[in-house]
Design brief:
Layout (H helix, E strand, L loop, with lengths): L1 H4 L36 H114 L3 H17 L5 H16 L5 H15 L17 H5 L6 H16 L8 H4 L5 H21 L3 H18 L5 H17 L8 H12 L2
Helix pairs in contact: 2-3, 2-12, 3-4, 4-12, 5-9, 5-11, 9-10, 10-11
Amino acid sequence: MNSDANAPIPRSTELGAPVMQAAPSAQVAVGPDLFSPVVVPRAVLFGLGAVALAALLVSSFLWQKLSGIQEQLARQSADTAAQSLEARTLARQANELSQEASARSALFEARLNEAVLQRSQVDELIQSLSRSRDENLVVDIESSIRLAQQQAQLTGSVEPLLSALKSAEQRVVRASQPRLAPLQRAVVRDIERIKSSTVADTPGLLIKLDELVRLTDDLVLANAVAPVTATPSPQRLTSDAPPNWWLRSLQVVRDETKSLFRVSRIEQPEAALLSPEQSFFLRENLKLKLLNARLGLLARQIDSSRADLVAASLALNRYFDANSRKTQTAANLLQQVQSQMNVLQLPRVDETLAALTTAAAGR
């Protein structure tokens, strides 16, 4: 019993071995053997050595693995640093390229703005040249049409006006400007209207007036005395015997008596009041009226010419013999001239002139 009580109590080892405690009923004796050396069994030592060796191996393995991890981390860190450096270099290059691109973009934008400005200036110059050309064309066409209108009024023929309008149409077609399209349509309408209008022949009217002036000297006055023609005596025609002097005297007296008296019907009392000496002035007055009508026709004074023709017609019907063939011929010519004077007014080109004014105003 005592030997068991004096048996050494196992203590915990440094390696954390389990501690064996005594039974609770045993009493620990306090004596001089309390601090005596402890004898550890070999199995425990071998176990502790195996554990220590295993821990050393594990530690070595872990250290090697940790060293590999550190090397890998170092390589990755170096790669990361290189990539970061390369990224910074690329970023710097990209920044430089971006700045250069921005500078080029600004230069290109400035050049583009300059090109746009030059293009706008060129367009304005072209439009100005085109507008100036169109304005010169419009002014030239207007002046030519007005000149042709004056020539037509002077000559009484529409040919100069038609020629000017056709030339204007050709020039507008060659210009090929959309803003001149209304002018072209107006010119075409005026050409069609002039072609369809009826205009008197002025040269023919002048010829007829000249014929009337020439016939004036041959017209027979209403109170003119017909010349007495001596008729031979029937005895003189049938007999070869010489007539008696008293018979011849009687014949002369009878002829003279017939020449002293005249019975005629005069519709216009004024014709009977004219003396033979005044017939000259009457014919000259009629000639003057016809010549005034001719001059008015040449000067395109249509109203004045019509008034002179009306006065000439009244004088012809009042003072001249209506039964005379020459008087009838003169009356017919005068009537023809008066009827042609009614259609002597030349057609106007107001539509073309209005289109020219609109084109010149630039609307």
